[in-house]
Batch of 4 targets.
Target 1
Amino acid sequence: MSNEAVRTEASEFDGVRKLPFTIPDVYGFLGHAYVLGILQNYEECKPWIYTHYNQLYISKDYVEIGEYRLDFYPNLMVLFSNVPWLQYRQTNKDMLADLGVDIHAFLQRHIDESFYCSTYVDEYYIPNSISNGVHHFSHDLMVYGYDLNRQIYNVAIFDKNRQFSFQEVTFENFGLAYHNDTGQKGISLCRKVEPREYGGSRYGAQLGKFDLELQTMLDSMSDYLHSVNTSKRLRFYFQSIEGYYGLDIYTGLQECFRLLAEGSINLDVRPLHILWEHKKMMTARIRYLQEQGALSEDSAALEGYTRLEGEAMVLRNMLLKYFYSRNNQTLGDIANRLGHMRTAEEQVLTALVEELGRRNNLVPYQFEEVVKLEV
């Protein structure tokens, strides 16, 4: 759509514009929530979604500062501009200020052109946020709509109950939150591209197209099963990252809870939340593969990962209870159950990798170097 067409359309609309956004399957970190909150609205994005979100890792860099940050690998956040279904733009607050650009005009124009905006704000001014009216705290949010009549933006944030949610923020409050010094200057914008745009771009440019990659999916599952450092494969593009990968993340998490019981590190529920979200994604992926005929309808993997999903939810809830009780026996119980969970997942995933390979005439990539964190 041309800029002229956008302006003409804007002059005819009722002052309300809201881009498609939904509660995502992964929201333990907002960067993942932003990507999936956009893409899960579109059937054509499912092949990309289910090809990814297989591997987990805990970076050694985080471990060295006492944070056992469990996350998906590779990192597919908006900030890193590595999702083929999204077109990106990047700028920063200083650049806009130097050019005299009004942030409200900037946001609204980009939303008119179907761009979502992620930026850092001071949550002290954001209603229903954890820090609202209590203390100044820099955090990112996603703006995905506005209403000129009511003078509000539609935003996605973690609310005061620490739940990922959709909120409304007045133009005035957003301005205060945006302009207050947050120490973070970046502004990331992205737009979901249409499949037809792939053919119209030079050599495709990898926009608006991603077919289901069963071999890549199988390789990633195999990496997880054998605790392979998947980042070693991407050294052509990125520095590899040492740490716990795949099933070895259970060892990292057990160490985390031992140190937590000793008082050596701070409590963080996110690792067990991400573990639960990983099992949710595995369950959803298996169902999708069954729909595509890549797995049998009676695949035992579905029942196996459904059980693992339930167990991960139990562990997450146990840790939430520990937040109030501070009973270290709970941490010991969690560590023990993580050991049993690892054994169970190894059995289920071994069968899943074998079935997926056999049914689709595929063989997992054999990566010789299995990297484990030295402890």
Target 2
Amino acid sequence: MFPFGKRNTLGIVLLFTFFTLILSSCAPRQSDSASEKEAKDKNVNNNTMLPPISPIEGEFEQVYGWIKKDTICYSAKLEGIYKIYAYNIYTGKHTQLYESEAELSNVMINNNQLLIYSALSEEEGEIHIIDSKGNEILSKRLESYETDFVWNPHNENELLITVFTKEWESKVSTLDIQENVLNDFPVSTPFPQWLSTEKVMYLDWNQSNPSLYAPLKIFNLETGEEKEIDLSNIYYIDQKNDYLLTISSTVKEEEAVYTFYHTDFSKQGSVHVPRLSKFSNWLVPNYTIYKDKFLTFVPKQNGNAETYQDGFELLEVDMETGQSKRLFTDMDFEDQPIQISSDGNYFLLGYYFENMLNMETGEITSLFASNPSQ
């Protein structure tokens, strides 16, 4: 879950931005085909990543994630113009997908599409959705101070959109991408997530009486039926790769309990880990999912998130069994956004995804010679 822009989104992106969805292939750049072929001959066969990337032009802004197992998506800025590129980490091929004069507030990658959101003012923003070759599919303006998006993993033409006013009042809608139509969502709760093609799930927080926990509820969009799931002490949920994750507390609130379910709520594995407290809740460290493996940072001991300085370990959990193991135990990590490639070979790591972790060797490489612009 990670920040994708310069504005403070009230933790929206860090908490819900764990979307590691993947686009299809991108159109090649024609001007350097000879050098690309040479790079491919030298690097693809032995899976060797090229040295740090030099943007085609401008100053590196940030990486947004994996488009394919060997291709990342990043942005650069030149003379007030923001440009988004696809970059093959083995061949060195750049492909421009998009450019805009508006600052990029949020970029989300899906199977065959890219969502780009720009906040035009404190009251208005604009969505652009493009395909894997940069062709625009949709452009739409929204009245919003902050905005959160959740792509339907079962239908790439549908989005859940939560918009917030400056007073943090929220409204949820569904966007039909093919029809370019917004429809009111029947449940007035922020941050719903897709559970299936016809069901969404959400934690039903009591806005008038704040609590550390909330009941997990399921809403059927076809029947209008709402159902509460009998699970205790939950404060975080997510769904990915046909697995449902809940994070809850032990009875004495000493540890975090990560529990994994299939989407029919049949319980699979679980693991207990140390937890850091915050002023009014608990820290949810960054994580990523590869097939049936859940990888996350865990603190070495319980403590206060504001004063904790003992570093984090990288934990891998088998979601079916709950068996876990520490990775790269000789390394100290920070709790930073992470995203794994679809082949499991590399992690993107850092607040701008500016670093690459080799999962075989543990080597961390800076992707760009220059630091992200502030």
Target 3
Amino acid sequence: MSDAVSLATNILTMQAASTQQALSIEMLRQNAQAEQGLLAMLQQNVEQTQATLPAGQGMLVDRTA
């Protein structure tokens, strides 16, 4: 009887670990998608900002100031 309880406990523990790992993977995937969306938004903002500047402006930074 003790072996059956031990086996059942091990199976439940493995299932819980598997579920936790699946949730962690899903959270990482969603985080990566969110970061890709943020990167795309920032890239679009940079492109729009560059389109509004006159040619050559914003290309050099005066580090002595």
Target 4
Amino acid sequence: MKARGAVLSRRNAHPATISDWGTLSPGDRVEIIKHAHVVASGEVEEVSKSGNVLWLVPASPSEKQLFLKSDGVQVRRS
């Protein structure tokens, strides 16, 4: 028998999405999700003052990426 708390519930298995991007700070590790699929991951470089635009430095070597909240993407901490 497993000890109490050893089994994660489905709710706790994945971090919640962040609705207020303005709470993110440079260096935070995040995943970008669209249509329930991770489309990018990396470190936050900058977030606009409005909290609607996020610049991401990808985990794999490539160019910085820009994400707009209005495009329907979600962000969660990784």
